[in-house]
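request received
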Amino acid sequence: MAERVLTYNTVSDRETIKLGQKLGAVLKEGDVIALVGELGSGKTWFAKGIAIGLGISPGTVITSPSFSLLNEYEGRCTFFHMDAYRLESLSDFISAGLDEYFFQDGVVAMEWADRWLEILPDWRVKVEFAIVDKYLRKIALSGYHARAVEILNGVQQQLD
Amino acid sequence: MIILGIDTSCDDTSAGVVVDGRQVLSNVVHSQVKLHQPHGGVVPELASREHLKNIMPVVSESLRKANIRMRDLDGIAVTVGPGLVGALLVGLYYAKGLSYVHNIPLVGINHLEGHILSIFLEEESPGFPFVALTVSGGHTSLYHVEGYGKYTQMGQTLDDAAGEAFDKVAKILGLGYPGGPVIENSARDGSKDRINFPRAYLSSDSFDFSFSGLKTAVALYIKKWRESQEEAEGVALADIAASFQEAVVDVLVRKVMGARKKVGVTSVVVAGGVACNDRLRTSLNEAGSSRDIQVYYPRPEYCTDNGAMIAAAGYNRLLNDEKDDMSMDVRSKYPIQDLPPFP
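response:
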Protein backbone atom coordinates (compact mmCIF):
# COMPACT_ATOMS: atom_id res chain seq x y z
CA MET A 1 0.00 0.00 0.00
CA ALA A 2 1.18 3.52 -0.73
CA GLU A 3 2.25 5.75 2.14
CA ARG A 4 -0.33 8.21 3.39
CA VAL A 5 0.92 11.48 4.88
CA LEU A 6 -0.91 14.22 6.79
CA THR A 7 0.90 17.44 7.63
CA TYR A 8 -0.10 20.01 10.24
CA ASN A 9 1.38 23.12 11.79
CA THR A 10 1.02 23.88 15.48
CA VAL A 11 1.94 27.19 17.08
CA SER A 12 1.89 26.24 20.75
CA ASP A 13 2.32 23.30 23.13
CA ARG A 14 -1.43 23.39 23.61
CA GLU A 15 -2.06 22.90 19.89
CA THR A 16 0.44 20.05 19.78
CA ILE A 17 -1.44 18.39 22.65
CA LYS A 18 -4.74 18.88 20.79
CA LEU A 19 -3.39 17.19 17.67
CA GLY A 20 -2.09 14.30 19.77
CA GLN A 21 -5.51 14.03 21.36
CA LYS A 22 -7.13 13.62 17.92
CA LEU A 23 -4.77 10.75 17.20
CA GLY A 24 -5.27 9.20 20.63
CA ALA A 25 -9.04 9.25 20.16
CA VAL A 26 -8.88 6.80 17.23
CA LEU A 27 -6.29 4.42 18.68
CA LYS A 28 -6.99 0.95 20.04
CA GLU A 29 -5.04 -1.89 21.60
CA GLY A 30 -2.09 -2.99 19.50
CA ASP A 31 -1.50 0.36 17.79
CA VAL A 32 2.05 1.69 17.74
CA ILE A 33 3.04 5.34 17.34
CA ALA A 34 6.62 6.25 16.42
CA LEU A 35 7.53 9.77 17.61
CA VAL A 36 10.48 11.27 15.75
CA GLY A 37 12.06 14.69 16.20
CA GLU A 38 14.92 16.56 17.85
CA LEU A 39 15.06 17.72 21.47
CA GLY A 40 12.35 20.24 22.25
CA SER A 41 10.31 19.55 19.13
CA GLY A 42 7.18 18.54 21.06
CA LYS A 43 7.20 14.73 21.27
CA THR A 44 6.27 14.57 24.94
CA TRP A 45 3.56 17.24 24.52
CA PHE A 46 2.09 15.18 21.71
CA ALA A 47 2.20 12.07 23.91
CA LYS A 48 0.28 14.00 26.59
CA GLY A 49 -2.38 14.55 23.91
CA ILE A 50 -2.46 10.86 22.97
CA ALA A 51 -3.03 10.08 26.66
CA ILE A 52 -6.02 12.43 26.83
CA GLY A 53 -7.39 10.89 23.61
CA LEU A 54 -7.06 7.45 25.20
CA GLY A 55 -9.25 8.59 28.08
CA ILE A 56 -6.52 8.81 30.69
CA SER A 57 -7.79 11.19 33.37
CA PRO A 58 -6.63 14.77 32.76
CA GLY A 59 -5.26 14.89 36.29
CA THR A 60 -2.67 12.25 35.42
CA VAL A 61 0.72 13.82 34.80
CA ILE A 62 2.45 12.42 31.72
CA THR A 63 6.17 12.90 32.30
CA SER A 64 9.14 12.24 30.06
CA PRO A 65 10.10 8.55 30.01
CA SER A 66 13.70 9.31 28.98
CA PHE A 67 15.11 8.09 32.26
CA SER A 68 12.63 5.38 33.24
CA LEU A 69 12.49 4.10 29.61
CA LEU A 70 8.81 3.23 30.01
CA ASN A 71 5.84 4.80 31.76
CA GLU A 72 2.48 3.06 31.94
CA TYR A 73 -0.95 4.67 32.25
CA GLU A 74 -4.50 3.30 32.34
CA GLY A 75 -7.23 4.77 30.15
CA ARG A 76 -9.66 3.14 27.69
CA CYS A 77 -6.74 0.78 27.32
CA THR A 78 -3.20 0.74 28.70
CA PHE A 79 -0.86 3.39 27.35
CA PHE A 80 2.82 2.46 27.18
CA HIS A 81 4.92 5.61 26.79
CA MET A 82 8.44 4.57 25.82
CA ASP A 83 11.67 6.39 25.08
CA ALA A 84 14.79 5.18 23.27
CA TYR A 85 16.79 8.32 24.14
CA ARG A 86 19.16 6.65 26.59
CA LEU A 87 19.61 3.44 24.68
CA GLU A 88 22.75 3.05 22.63
CA SER A 89 22.01 -0.02 20.58
CA LEU A 90 19.22 -2.21 19.40
CA SER A 91 20.50 -4.95 21.67
CA ASP A 92 19.97 -2.60 24.67
CA PHE A 93 16.42 -2.07 23.52
CA ILE A 94 15.74 -5.78 23.22
CA SER A 95 17.52 -6.81 26.40
CA ALA A 96 15.51 -4.20 28.33
CA GLY A 97 12.48 -6.12 27.06
CA LEU A 98 10.94 -3.07 25.40
CA ASP A 99 10.11 -4.86 22.13
CA GLU A 100 7.65 -7.05 24.02
CA TYR A 101 5.33 -4.09 24.54
CA PHE A 102 4.47 -3.96 20.83
CA PHE A 103 2.52 -7.15 21.31
CA GLN A 104 0.79 -6.45 24.61
CA ASP A 105 -2.74 -5.22 25.20
CA GLY A 106 -2.16 -1.53 24.92
CA VAL A 107 -1.14 1.41 22.79
CA VAL A 108 2.57 2.14 22.47
CA ALA A 109 4.02 5.58 21.75
CA MET A 110 7.78 5.53 21.44
CA GLU A 111 9.97 8.63 21.51
CA TRP A 112 13.22 8.68 19.49
CA ALA A 113 11.70 5.85 17.45
CA ASP A 114 13.87 6.66 14.42
CA ARG A 115 16.82 4.96 16.12
CA TRP A 116 15.54 1.62 14.91
CA LEU A 117 12.34 2.34 13.05
CA GLU A 118 12.55 -1.04 11.35
CA ILE A 119 11.90 -2.96 14.56
CA LEU A 120 8.54 -1.26 15.03
CA PRO A 121 5.64 -3.25 13.56
CA ASP A 122 4.50 -2.44 9.98
CA TRP A 123 1.23 -0.97 11.23
CA ARG A 124 3.00 1.85 13.08
CA VAL A 125 2.05 5.47 12.51
CA LYS A 126 5.11 7.70 12.32
CA VAL A 127 4.80 11.23 13.70
CA GLU A 128 7.66 13.52 12.68
CA PHE A 129 8.24 16.87 14.40
CA ALA A 130 10.22 19.73 12.86
CA ILE A 131 11.13 22.91 14.72
CA VAL A 132 10.35 25.84 12.40
CA ASP A 133 10.87 28.63 14.92
CA LYS A 134 10.51 29.24 18.65
CA TYR A 135 6.87 28.17 18.72
CA LEU A 136 5.98 26.86 15.25
CA ARG A 137 6.22 23.10 14.74
CA LYS A 138 5.55 21.16 11.55
CA ILE A 139 4.08 17.78 12.40
CA ALA A 140 3.78 15.03 9.78
CA LEU A 141 1.78 11.87 10.45
CA SER A 142 2.44 8.98 8.08
CA GLY A 143 1.91 5.26 7.59
CA TYR A 144 1.44 2.72 4.83
CA HIS A 145 -0.16 -0.32 6.46
CA ALA A 146 -3.96 -0.68 6.16
CA ARG A 147 -4.40 -0.09 9.92
CA ALA A 148 -2.15 2.97 9.83
CA VAL A 149 -4.12 4.42 6.93
CA GLU A 150 -7.33 3.77 8.84
CA ILE A 151 -5.92 5.68 11.82
CA LEU A 152 -4.79 8.59 9.65
CA ASN A 153 -8.22 8.78 8.00
CA GLY A 154 -9.74 8.90 11.46
CA VAL A 155 -7.52 11.83 12.42
CA GLN A 156 -8.29 13.69 9.21
CA GLN A 157 -12.05 13.24 9.63
CA GLN A 158 -11.92 14.98 13.00
CA LEU A 159 -10.03 17.92 11.57
CA ASP A 160 -12.15 18.43 8.45
CA MET B 1 18.02 -5.35 63.77
CA ILE B 2 20.20 -6.16 60.77
CA ILE B 3 18.52 -5.65 57.41
CA LEU B 4 19.68 -6.47 53.89
CA GLY B 5 18.31 -4.04 51.31
CA ILE B 6 18.17 -4.79 47.58
CA ASP B 7 17.37 -2.38 44.73
CA THR B 8 17.15 -3.21 41.01
CA SER B 9 14.60 -0.60 39.99
CA CYS B 10 16.59 1.06 37.23
CA ASP B 11 20.13 0.89 35.87
CA ASP B 12 22.10 -0.17 38.91
CA THR B 13 22.11 -3.40 40.86
CA SER B 14 22.64 -2.57 44.53
CA ALA B 15 22.58 -4.17 47.97
CA GLY B 16 23.42 -2.88 51.43
CA VAL B 17 23.41 -4.08 55.01
CA VAL B 18 22.18 -1.61 57.64
CA VAL B 19 21.77 -1.91 61.41
CA ASP B 20 18.64 -0.36 62.96
CA GLY B 21 17.97 1.70 59.87
CA ARG B 22 20.93 3.99 60.55
CA GLN B 23 24.31 2.31 60.68
CA VAL B 24 25.55 1.26 57.27
CA LEU B 25 27.74 -1.85 57.35
CA SER B 26 28.00 -2.07 53.58
CA ASN B 27 26.58 -0.46 50.47
CA VAL B 28 27.51 -2.12 47.18
CA VAL B 29 26.45 -0.76 43.80
CA HIS B 30 27.16 -2.38 40.47
CA SER B 31 26.88 0.70 38.32
CA GLN B 32 26.15 0.27 34.68
CA VAL B 33 27.02 3.85 33.90
CA LYS B 34 30.48 4.04 32.40
CA LEU B 35 31.89 7.44 33.20
CA HIS B 36 34.15 7.80 30.20
CA GLN B 37 32.04 7.12 27.19
CA PRO B 38 34.00 7.63 23.97
CA HIS B 39 31.25 9.58 22.18
CA GLY B 40 29.52 11.24 25.11
CA GLY B 41 27.24 8.29 24.88
CA VAL B 42 24.55 7.24 27.23
CA VAL B 43 23.94 4.22 29.42
CA PRO B 44 25.14 1.07 27.73
CA GLU B 45 23.40 -1.92 29.28
CA LEU B 46 20.22 -1.40 31.24
CA ALA B 47 18.92 -4.83 30.87
CA SER B 48 17.21 -7.14 33.25
CA ARG B 49 19.84 -9.51 31.91
CA GLU B 50 22.53 -7.34 33.48
CA HIS B 51 20.73 -7.33 36.83
CA LEU B 52 20.55 -11.12 36.63
CA LYS B 53 24.28 -11.29 36.07
CA ASN B 54 25.02 -8.86 38.92
CA ILE B 55 22.53 -9.68 41.64
CA MET B 56 24.32 -12.65 43.22
CA PRO B 57 27.81 -11.12 43.31
CA VAL B 58 26.44 -7.76 44.56
CA VAL B 59 24.45 -9.32 47.42
CA SER B 60 27.35 -11.63 48.37
CA GLU B 61 29.74 -8.71 48.36
CA SER B 62 27.41 -6.64 50.56
CA LEU B 63 27.30 -9.43 53.15
CA ARG B 64 31.05 -10.06 52.95
CA LYS B 65 31.88 -6.36 53.39
CA ALA B 66 29.47 -6.14 56.33
CA ASN B 67 31.00 -9.30 57.79
CA ILE B 68 27.52 -10.71 58.19
CA ARG B 69 26.27 -14.21 57.49
CA MET B 70 22.89 -14.86 55.98
CA ARG B 71 21.60 -16.29 59.26
CA ASP B 72 22.50 -13.07 61.09
CA LEU B 73 19.95 -11.14 59.07
CA ASP B 74 16.71 -10.07 60.76
CA GLY B 75 15.03 -9.02 57.56
CA ILE B 76 15.28 -8.48 53.82
CA ALA B 77 13.91 -5.33 52.19
CA VAL B 78 13.52 -5.17 48.44
CA THR B 79 12.32 -2.47 46.05
CA VAL B 80 9.03 -3.48 44.41
CA GLY B 81 8.40 -0.23 42.52
CA PRO B 82 8.20 2.10 40.78
CA GLY B 83 10.51 1.00 37.99
CA LEU B 84 10.92 -1.25 35.00
CA VAL B 85 9.05 -4.49 35.57
CA GLY B 86 11.79 -6.70 34.13
CA ALA B 87 14.43 -5.05 36.29
CA LEU B 88 12.35 -5.06 39.49
CA LEU B 89 11.48 -8.75 39.07
CA VAL B 90 15.13 -9.77 39.30
CA GLY B 91 15.57 -8.15 42.71
CA LEU B 92 12.21 -9.29 44.05
CA TYR B 93 12.60 -12.93 43.06
CA TYR B 94 16.13 -13.11 44.37
CA ALA B 95 14.94 -11.63 47.67
CA LYS B 96 12.01 -14.05 47.82
CA GLY B 97 14.39 -16.96 47.27
CA LEU B 98 16.69 -15.83 50.09
CA SER B 99 13.75 -15.19 52.41
CA TYR B 100 12.22 -18.59 51.73
CA VAL B 101 15.40 -20.64 51.94
CA HIS B 102 16.79 -18.93 55.05
CA ASN B 103 13.44 -18.19 56.67
CA ILE B 104 14.04 -14.44 56.97
CA PRO B 105 11.15 -11.91 57.07
CA LEU B 106 10.69 -10.05 53.79
CA VAL B 107 9.24 -6.62 53.10
CA GLY B 108 8.58 -4.82 49.79
CA ILE B 109 9.68 -1.18 49.62
CA ASN B 110 8.69 1.83 47.56
CA HIS B 111 11.86 3.17 45.95
CA LEU B 112 10.80 6.79 46.60
CA GLU B 113 10.43 6.10 50.32
CA GLY B 114 14.01 4.83 50.21
CA HIS B 115 15.21 8.17 48.81
CA ILE B 116 13.23 10.17 51.37
CA LEU B 117 14.62 8.14 54.30
CA SER B 118 18.20 8.00 52.93
CA ILE B 119 19.05 11.01 55.11
CA PHE B 120 18.78 8.79 58.21
CA LEU B 121 21.87 6.91 57.06
CA GLU B 122 23.78 10.06 57.97
CA GLU B 123 24.78 10.98 61.48
CA GLU B 124 23.36 14.43 61.01
CA SER B 125 19.69 14.05 60.17
CA PRO B 126 16.58 16.11 60.84
CA GLY B 127 13.67 15.33 63.13
CA PHE B 128 10.16 15.15 61.73
CA PRO B 129 8.49 16.99 60.12
CA PHE B 130 10.52 18.16 57.13
CA VAL B 131 10.20 18.90 53.44
CA ALA B 132 12.05 16.56 51.09
CA LEU B 133 13.07 17.25 47.51
CA THR B 134 14.04 14.17 45.50
CA VAL B 135 15.80 15.36 42.40
CA SER B 136 17.51 13.09 39.89
CA GLY B 137 17.42 11.96 36.25
CA GLY B 138 14.08 10.32 36.83
CA HIS B 139 12.44 12.38 39.58
CA THR B 140 11.82 15.91 40.69
CA SER B 141 9.30 15.78 43.52
CA LEU B 142 8.57 17.64 46.75
CA TYR B 143 7.17 15.86 49.79
CA HIS B 144 5.92 16.92 53.18
CA VAL B 145 7.31 14.26 55.49
CA GLU B 146 5.54 14.08 58.84
CA GLY B 147 6.87 10.77 60.07
CA TYR B 148 7.82 7.29 58.91
CA GLY B 149 5.30 6.32 56.25
CA LYS B 150 3.59 9.72 56.36
CA TYR B 151 4.44 11.38 53.08
CA THR B 152 2.35 13.87 51.18
CA GLN B 153 3.48 14.80 47.70
CA MET B 154 3.37 18.59 47.35
CA GLY B 155 4.55 18.81 43.77
CA GLN B 156 6.34 17.05 40.96
CA THR B 157 7.70 17.70 37.50
CA LEU B 158 5.04 17.98 34.82
CA ASP B 159 7.47 16.98 32.07
CA ASP B 160 11.25 16.48 32.36
CA ALA B 161 13.14 15.75 35.58
CA ALA B 162 15.88 18.24 36.52
CA GLY B 163 18.62 15.64 36.07
CA GLU B 164 17.24 14.78 32.66
CA ALA B 165 17.51 18.44 31.64
CA PHE B 166 21.17 18.37 32.75
CA ASP B 167 21.80 15.22 30.71
CA LYS B 168 20.10 16.51 27.60
CA VAL B 169 21.75 19.94 27.67
CA ALA B 170 25.15 18.30 28.29
CA LYS B 171 24.62 16.15 25.24
CA ILE B 172 23.72 19.13 23.02
CA LEU B 173 26.82 20.94 24.30
CA GLY B 174 28.91 17.85 23.52
CA LEU B 175 30.05 17.60 27.14
CA GLY B 176 29.32 13.90 27.66
CA TYR B 177 27.51 11.91 30.30
CA PRO B 178 26.37 12.02 33.04
CA GLY B 179 25.22 15.57 32.52
CA GLY B 180 25.24 16.83 36.12
CA PRO B 181 28.98 16.70 36.85
CA VAL B 182 30.07 17.78 33.35
CA ILE B 183 27.79 20.83 33.31
CA GLU B 184 28.87 21.75 36.82
CA ASN B 185 32.53 21.52 35.84
CA SER B 186 32.08 23.57 32.73
CA ALA B 187 29.96 26.14 34.58
CA ARG B 188 32.81 26.95 36.98
CA ASP B 189 34.54 28.95 34.24
CA GLY B 190 31.38 30.65 33.06
CA SER B 191 29.13 33.52 34.05
CA LYS B 192 25.79 32.46 35.47
CA ASP B 193 24.20 35.78 34.56
CA ARG B 194 25.40 35.87 30.94
CA ILE B 195 22.18 34.49 29.42
CA ASN B 196 18.77 34.87 30.98
CA PHE B 197 17.19 31.47 30.33
CA PRO B 198 13.50 31.08 31.22
CA ARG B 199 12.55 29.91 34.72
CA ALA B 200 9.20 28.10 34.90
CA TYR B 201 7.78 28.96 38.30
CA LEU B 202 4.23 28.07 37.12
CA SER B 203 1.68 29.65 39.46
CA SER B 204 2.88 31.10 42.76
CA ASP B 205 0.99 28.52 44.85
CA SER B 206 2.17 25.56 42.75
CA PHE B 207 5.01 23.31 43.85
CA ASP B 208 5.15 21.54 40.51
CA PHE B 209 8.14 21.84 38.22
CA SER B 210 8.62 22.12 34.47
CA PHE B 211 12.03 21.88 32.82
CA SER B 212 11.04 21.07 29.27
CA GLY B 213 10.68 24.72 28.24
CA LEU B 214 14.12 25.52 29.63
CA LYS B 215 15.63 22.55 27.79
CA THR B 216 14.05 23.70 24.53
CA ALA B 217 15.17 27.32 25.08
CA VAL B 218 18.75 26.19 25.69
CA ALA B 219 18.68 23.88 22.65
CA LEU B 220 17.45 26.71 20.41
CA TYR B 221 20.00 29.12 21.88
CA ILE B 222 22.86 26.70 21.25
CA LYS B 223 21.72 26.19 17.66
CA LYS B 224 21.83 29.95 17.01
CA TRP B 225 25.06 30.35 18.96
CA ARG B 226 26.77 27.73 16.81
CA GLU B 227 25.51 29.28 13.57
CA SER B 228 26.74 32.75 14.45
CA GLN B 229 29.91 32.23 16.43
CA GLU B 230 31.40 35.64 15.53
CA GLU B 231 28.31 37.57 16.51
CA ALA B 232 27.91 35.68 19.73
CA GLU B 233 30.01 38.43 21.38
CA GLY B 234 32.27 36.14 23.22
CA VAL B 235 29.64 33.96 24.82
CA ALA B 236 31.56 30.85 25.83
CA LEU B 237 30.26 27.34 26.24
CA ALA B 238 30.95 27.71 29.95
CA ASP B 239 28.61 30.73 30.07
CA ILE B 240 25.80 28.67 28.57
CA ALA B 241 26.44 25.85 31.05
CA ALA B 242 26.54 28.26 34.00
CA SER B 243 23.44 30.19 32.91
CA PHE B 244 21.48 26.97 32.34
CA GLN B 245 22.55 25.55 35.70
CA GLU B 246 21.54 28.76 37.44
CA ALA B 247 18.07 28.61 35.89
CA VAL B 248 17.54 25.07 37.25
CA VAL B 249 18.96 25.98 40.66
CA ASP B 250 16.83 29.13 40.96
CA VAL B 251 13.62 27.17 40.36
CA LEU B 252 14.56 24.34 42.74
CA VAL B 253 15.55 26.73 45.53
CA ARG B 254 12.45 28.89 45.24
CA LYS B 255 10.09 25.88 45.19
CA VAL B 256 11.80 24.16 48.11
CA MET B 257 11.74 27.30 50.23
CA GLY B 258 8.14 27.99 49.22
CA ALA B 259 7.04 24.48 50.17
CA ARG B 260 8.84 24.72 53.48
CA LYS B 261 7.12 27.98 54.28
CA LYS B 262 3.71 26.64 53.25
CA VAL B 263 3.83 23.70 55.69
CA GLY B 264 5.82 25.61 58.30
CA VAL B 265 8.85 23.37 58.81
CA THR B 266 12.43 24.40 59.52
CA SER B 267 14.23 21.37 58.04
CA VAL B 268 14.72 20.49 54.40
CA VAL B 269 16.17 17.29 52.92
CA VAL B 270 17.53 17.22 49.38
CA ALA B 271 18.21 13.75 47.98
CA GLY B 272 18.81 12.22 44.55
CA GLY B 273 21.67 12.55 42.08
CA VAL B 274 21.22 16.30 41.46
CA ALA B 275 21.67 16.92 45.22
CA CYS B 276 25.41 16.42 44.55
CA ASN B 277 25.48 19.67 42.56
CA ASP B 278 27.63 22.22 44.42
CA ARG B 279 25.93 25.27 43.01
CA LEU B 280 22.54 23.93 44.16
CA ARG B 281 23.95 23.30 47.64
CA THR B 282 25.51 26.74 47.92
CA SER B 283 22.33 28.43 46.79
CA LEU B 284 20.09 26.34 49.07
CA ASN B 285 22.36 26.87 52.06
CA GLU B 286 22.34 30.64 51.46
CA ALA B 287 18.57 30.71 51.17
CA GLY B 288 18.28 28.49 54.24
CA SER B 289 20.67 30.33 56.53
CA SER B 290 18.97 33.66 55.96
CA ARG B 291 15.75 32.11 57.25
CA ASP B 292 17.22 29.87 59.94
CA ILE B 293 16.46 26.77 57.93
CA GLN B 294 18.69 23.72 58.11
CA VAL B 295 19.26 21.89 54.82
CA TYR B 296 20.37 18.25 54.94
CA TYR B 297 21.97 16.22 52.14
CA PRO B 298 22.78 12.53 52.12
CA ARG B 299 26.31 11.86 50.83
CA PRO B 300 26.57 11.08 47.10
CA GLU B 301 26.55 7.28 47.48
CA TYR B 302 23.27 7.51 49.38
CA CYS B 303 21.87 10.03 46.89
CA THR B 304 22.07 7.76 43.87
CA ASP B 305 20.11 4.50 43.82
CA ASN B 306 21.40 2.19 46.55
CA GLY B 307 20.47 -0.80 48.67
CA ALA B 308 21.27 0.83 52.04
CA MET B 309 18.37 3.29 51.77
CA ILE B 310 16.03 0.40 50.99
CA ALA B 311 17.30 -1.40 54.10
CA ALA B 312 16.64 1.77 56.15
CA ALA B 313 13.07 1.96 54.87
CA GLY B 314 12.64 -1.79 55.44
CA TYR B 315 13.80 -1.52 59.04
CA ASN B 316 11.01 0.87 59.94
CA ARG B 317 8.37 -1.26 58.28
CA LEU B 318 9.60 -4.55 59.79
CA LEU B 319 9.79 -2.84 63.16
CA ASN B 320 6.07 -2.16 62.73
CA ASP B 321 5.45 -5.85 62.08
CA GLU B 322 4.84 -5.21 58.43
CA LYS B 323 5.77 -8.28 56.42
CA ASP B 324 5.10 -9.46 52.89
CA ASP B 325 4.61 -13.01 51.75
CA MET B 326 5.59 -14.89 48.61
CA SER B 327 2.60 -13.52 46.70
CA MET B 328 4.08 -10.01 46.68
CA ASP B 329 4.48 -8.62 43.16
CA VAL B 330 6.32 -5.72 41.50
CA ARG B 331 4.54 -2.42 40.67
CA SER B 332 5.73 -0.43 37.67
CA LYS B 333 3.65 2.49 38.94
CA TYR B 334 3.75 3.03 42.67
CA PRO B 335 2.77 6.57 43.73
CA ILE B 336 3.90 7.34 47.25
CA GLN B 337 0.33 8.07 48.33
CA ASP B 338 -0.44 4.37 47.69
CA LEU B 339 2.04 3.35 50.40
CA PRO B 340 0.51 1.44 53.26
CA PRO B 341 0.48 3.76 56.31
CA PHE B 342 2.25 2.63 59.45
CA PRO B 343 -0.07 0.89 61.90
